[in-house]
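seq:
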Amino acid sequence: MSLFDWFANRRKSEPHIQQQKEREIADGLWTKCPACGVLTYTKDLQVNQMVCAECNHHLRVNSDERIRQLIDAKTWKPLNENLQPTDPLKFCDRKPYSSRIEEYQEKTGLTDAVQTGTGLLHGLPVALGVMDFRFMGGSMGSVVGEKLTRAIEYATSEGIPVVIVCASGGARMQEGMLSLMQMAKISGALSRHQEAQLLYIPVLTNPTTGGVTASFAMLGDIIIAEPKATIGFAGRRVIEQTLREKLPEGFQTSEYLLQHGFVDAIIPRTQLKKTLAQLISLHQPVFPLVSQLNSENSNNNVMSR
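struct:
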């Protein structure tokens, strides 16, 4: 038997290989659920806000998609979108930090790991910050901290609520202490926002960890989480080695944290916009009342002088 005949007979004996090649599908046309393995038409999955219809698994979404899901069409106005990260420490691991930034900017089309802006959510004005895990794991560097701080301060001056969608591995090690200081800076801006009796709602998605959890992710008036999101500060192994105790399964899931009072509600992504609108509506009457009281107080102070 010639080598050609051997290959021909092998093809005949393995028709499933031929069928598999004939049934190849275009890249990106179908999406496989990482939880249950079901293939779903990508456009149908996007209509369902990237939630698997079979097992209700919430697939990770980028910041652009999240903005489309939450903000009414043609109302989004970005804030400080041109802020660029620098390399103050001249940090270098396997490659220079500056090169790593350029790589992720080219890959994602973002300047850094967060988008901030204002828009209407079911007709209600809101300042929104959305972290993007694609950009260096959503790590919090100086630009992330500055953009979130400026968005919060703008919301405070305009008297509108703030919503931040958290998705992060924590502080960005390439910026050292500068990244850690963003925790205090954002927290300070939120404190002034809350002193003005304005609403702040963080939405914790998978994953929300490290310095983000240790700061603004847990400072909300109402803390919302997506189902089965990983939420914590350090990893299981680090905590177990520190405490020298075995931790329960699922102790860093949103369901466990809800049970122990760390989050206020678990809301499926398909219901998130509606729920946020209801919460903002309930607090909406407070906004003009606060401005009225502030105006009256200032008038009284002028008269007393």
